[in-house]
Amino acid sequence: MTTFEIKEEFMLDGEPFKILSGAIHYFRIHPDEWYHSLYNLKALGFNTVETYVPWNMHEKEEGTFTFTGFSDVVSFIQLAQEVGLYVILRPTPYICAEWEFGGLPAWLLEKNCRIRSSDPVFLTYVRRYYEELLEKVVPLQVTHGGPILMMQIENEYGSYGEDKDYLKAIKQIMEDCGVNVPFFTSDGSWLATLRAGSMVEEGVLPTGNFGSKGKANFAELKKFHESYHKKWPLMCMEFWDGWFNRWGEPIVTRETDELVEALKEVLEIGSVNLYMFHGGTNFGFMNGCSARGTRDLPQITSYDYGAPLDEQGNPTEKYYAIQKMVHEMFPEIVQMEPLIKTSFALENVPLTNKVSLVSVIDEISQKVTSKYPQTMEELGQAYGYLFYRTTLQKEMDNQRLRIIDGRDRAQVFVNGEHIATQYQEQIGEDLFVSLIDEENQLDILVENMSRVNYGHKLLAETQRKGIRQGVMSDLHFMLEWDHYCLSFDKPFTIDFSQEWQAGQPAFYQYRFTLEELADTFINLQEFGKGIVLVNGHHIGRFWHKGAQQSLYIPKGFLQKENEVIIFETEGKFAETLRFTKTPQYDLVETSLYER
User: Fold this and answer.
1) pLDDT at residue number 587
2) Catalytic site residue from 156, 311, 377, 570
3) Interatomic CA distance for residues 323 and 298, integer angstroms
4) Which member of 100, 238, 311, 447 is catalytic?
5) Residues 212 and 83 in one domain
6) Residue 464: CATH number of its domain
7) Whole domain around residue 549: which residue ranges?
8) pLDDT digit string (tens) for 421-452?
9) Is residue 156 among the annotated active site residues?
10) % of the chain residues with pLDDT over 90
């Protein structure tokens, strides 16, 4: 049986072992493509794969656990072992990872507890989750003949808190559930974060996260180890080989030669985990959100990250450059040619049907009524859109309306006419509408554009989505609201025989036949904002703001006869669809928010 120990060096079966790891998130890649990515990591000459485990993928609804499909972490780990890779597992309650709410399930927002703390209520939910998760992965530790070398306690906690009772509780829960491989923490490699987030007294290895200046960062990490009289191996747990991207901003790039030199500097001193090796895709509503002052800036659907494998999983220039450098540094390491997937292009797929949201809202969502508007969380909804409706009485010719305290984006319609779109920092400003009828229909479509994935705002009231206080006409709150949850997480049927009206949120249906299946990218430059469903699979958000102007469709979502349904909220659509072999990037507008 394989042994793995942390002494002055990492020791595998009693021999020094340099960890050459790459991050692949199983939940961002279609399961059919796991082998492709894992093989390419092994072909690079690396020996280990690292992955987070997102709580909100495995317990989307409280008390209901999922470990199949994109959530089949066991199969991913077993496949890694078959390929010949060891595994670093990061099954922490919070992962960051540019992932919705940092991996925390949205239902926690309705619990009276302080997340990421020693609050007993929060720890009760963590223990329940860990008992389900760890029962499945404990048998995959190296101590049981599996590939898991070590596991993480929390994630970059030194950039959030210093509650050591919390960290000790997480460690204890993991041990209670059978974890007996070495533990580690990962933080920025400077004193403040290392001190706040580490558990050296508990024998837990601190590792550092950085993307450059390896000598300097490792020197700080070594100094921290020595302050506790430890001679532990040095490891960069997240070597950032690229970066994530936000809507309305240029794609972040990193020059290949500079990256390789920075990585070489790290490998000359210690071990490394490339973050990311294959970034993948934020399918569904799982994109994260950056916290910036009073605004939260949502990230794009692609998690390409500028990684050695592109979003599709094919090797980039960085891949081959790193492979060459590794061969020069460690000529004894066996390397192989990487696998390369194909993709297809298809032009002029015709529009089959279209229908306005308001025409089918009662068929695709169950109405919930209340005196005051409720939030998503109060309605048991985690992600997507929430459609509000009430009756607006005419009280003056130029009537004043205000949405009080809402997130993240509200489209306001009166009698079917679009009045305004307000983003988070504009919600609350006056809207004036000219009314003719005594009674009018007020509709508000609110989009949850994602919860933040790091920082103090994890605790903020702004992470509750929808209308949180109410809507005012003149100086009074309006009553009697209908709510329609649009989470797009379950199959539904759309009656396309109903009416379509220009300028309203609507569904657009396209059909096409394929003789051979392969990956592709759907071009969305003629559309405004919304989501795409491919044969019922939610492949993510699009937005004309750019820079991303297409969405990746893995082969596993396609079949011979295909249906694409686009939910578009701005009244922009195309009579024909176009699919391309490569992604389309184009910064259409530089301002993320507009009035």
Assistant:
1) 57
2) 156
3) 33
4) 238
5) yes
6) 2.60.120.260
7) 346-352+491-580
8) 999 989 999 999 999 999 999 999 999 999 99
9) yes
10) 97
